[in-house]
Hints:
- By secondary structure, this protein is mainly beta.
- Helices cover 0% and strands 41% of the residues.
- The protein has one domain: CATH 2.40.50.100.
Amino acid sequence: MSHVKAGGTSKNNHNNGGPRLGVKLFGGEKVKIGQIIVRQVGMSKRGGDGTKVSRNYTIHAARDGVVAFRQRKVQTFTGKTAWRTEVTVQ
């Protein structure tokens, strides 16, 4: 048999920062192509005209212009409609 006591687990050893999510450019601000407009987890905001959505749901500008946010109805998976925020570049 081993003569070493069992090692316990260590707590409070995480050393990673926050993900820095949120809206980076607000409505009415000028944007250049490729700039990040919104960093998010999931599709809380939808990408509209002039934007592209990356794999981690970050919304980027697909062209130069001005950022605009608007509310629109979107059909959910169950079939009901719900209001969602759409990000566009005009």
